[in-house]
Structures are given as C-alpha cells and as structure tokens.
C-alpha cells in the first residue's frame, strides 16, 4: 500500500485529493495548520484507510522539520508528495500592496514547498522511487495586473518543478506540475480577507472547476503506469480561455 503526504489537506483541493486517494487504497498523511479541522479530516479519512496527521505551517521551517521528523518509522516512506498548501492575499497594484501579503504568498507558495520537499526527497532518492506533485496555477502562464506577486510565486513553482525533474528523474522519481484555472474553493475568500460577497463574484456567471476536478487529475497522474510521467497539466473550466479571460453568462 502506497503512502501519500498531502499539504493543505484540511480543505479544497488538498482535502478532495486526500479523500479520493484514500478511496483508491492509499495510506494518507494529512497536513495542515488548523489542528481542530485537521483532526476532523483525519477522523473522516480513517474510515476509509490508514491515516496519520501532521499539524504544522509550511511557512515555518522549524515546524516543517519537527513535524516530518516525528513520523513513526512505519510512516516515513513517502511514495507520493502533493505540495498543495498555498495562498493568495490581496488584489492591489504593487504600489498599494501590503508587504505582509507578499511575505505570506512567497513564504507559503514557494518557500513552504521547498521546505517540505527538502524533507521528503532524500528518502525518495534512497529508495529510487517516488512522485512529487506541485500545485501551481494558470497565473504562472500569464501575469495579470494587481496579482503580480501571486503570479510570480506560481511561476516559481513551475520553475522549481522543472528543476526537480532535471535533478530527480535519474533516481526514478516523477515530478508533475499542475496548473488549475478558476477553482471554486476558499481561495478567493482568503484573497479578499473573508469578504464572501466579493469572493462570490469571482465564480458568478459560469461553472468553475471544483476541487474534485483537480483531485481527479492528480489521481490520474499518480496512478499512471510506471513508464509514464505527466510533467505538466493545465486545467481550465470550459468558460475560461486564458488566465485573465472568463466568458460569463451574466
């Protein structure tokens, strides 16, 4: 039975992926910052498969190192790492942006991914097997005004994924970079500081992707035959033609 470690597993894409892989027979390590929610997710998943939880913030290197190092011996061999934790904060031009927002995005989307990966990769290299899935965004493909730092952080994920592939393929480790378009999760609510009405406008007038759609794509990639690597996968809702353009009915 393979073991998958998923960051940002308490909601959205991370939780949907944990549920799907659990149903497919994976053992699951769910990771998240909100301890109460994390334990509830663990309880739900435990009805489907063996489940372990790690409570840490990917932005904090010491927490990452302590949490992953604390895994019991029978949970240390990670077959699949899904770097899903990330965030967007604010939608202002650079001249009006808040540096705390910039730090949160760069620390979570870039440095957090690196911190977790650095802890898991040595074991995969030693075993000469593994699969790393990084969740980027279509924002990496086309920068948009008022989202410069977020776009930059996701472009970094693309570059890191490419670099991982160059460094790890010889060790039998697959690397997949997934770029979702508009997905209806808590993403926009977080970006707009809890303003639910403003967040709803992001998904108005068309059918956005669901977290389960991205989970399906992740499962397809990690379950591909051993000789197949899905290196990059871009997923749009049918109403979205490119990162900045969504065709709405109203």
From TrEMBL:
InterPro entries per UniProt: NAD(P)-bd_dom_sf, Sc_DH/Rdtase_CS, SDR_fam
Superkingdom of the organism of origin: Bacteria
GO molecular function: oxidoreductase activity, acting on the CH-OH group of donors, NAD or NADP as acceptor
SUPFAM superfamilies, sorted: NAD(P)-binding Rossmann-fold domains (SSF51735)
Keyword Oxidoreductase: yes
Keyword annotations of the record: Oxidoreductase
Family, as annotated: Belongs to the short-chain dehydrogenases/reductases (SDR) family.
Record protein name field: Malonic semialdehyde reductase
Gene source species: Chryseobacterium koreense CCUG 49689
């Amino acid at each position: 039975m393979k073991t998958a470690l998923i960051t940002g597993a308490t909601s959205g894409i991370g939780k949907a992926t944990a549920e799907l892989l659990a149903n497919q027979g994976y053992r699951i390590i769910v990771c998240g910052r909100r301890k109460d929610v994390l334990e509830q997710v663990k309880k739900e998943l435990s009805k489907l498969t063996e489940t372990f939880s790690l409570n840490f913030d990917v932005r904090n290197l010491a927490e990452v190192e302590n949490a992953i190092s604390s895994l019991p011996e029978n949970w240390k061999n990670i077959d699949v790492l899904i770097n899903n934790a990330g965030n967007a904060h604010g939608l202002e031009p650079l001249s009006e942006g808040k540096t705390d927002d910039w730090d949160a995005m760069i620390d979570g989307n870039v440095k957090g991914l690196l911190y977790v990966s650095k802890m898991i990769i040595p074991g995969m290299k030693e075993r000469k097997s593994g699969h790393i899935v990084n969740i980027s965004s279509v924002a990496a493909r086309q920068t948009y005004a008022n989202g410069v730092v977020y776009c930059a952080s996701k472009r970094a994920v693309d570059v890191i994924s490419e670099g991982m592939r160059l460094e790890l393929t010889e060790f039998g480790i697959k690397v997949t970079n997934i770029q979702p378009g508009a997905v209806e999760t808590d993403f926009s609510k977080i970006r707009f500081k809890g303003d639910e009405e403003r967040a709803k406008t992001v998904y108005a007038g068309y059918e956005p992707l669901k977290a389960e759609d991205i989970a399906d794509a992740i499962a397809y990639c990690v379950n591909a035959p051993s000789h197949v690597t899905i290196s990059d996968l871009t997923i749009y809702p049918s109403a979205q033609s490119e990162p900045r353009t969504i065709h709405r009915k109203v």
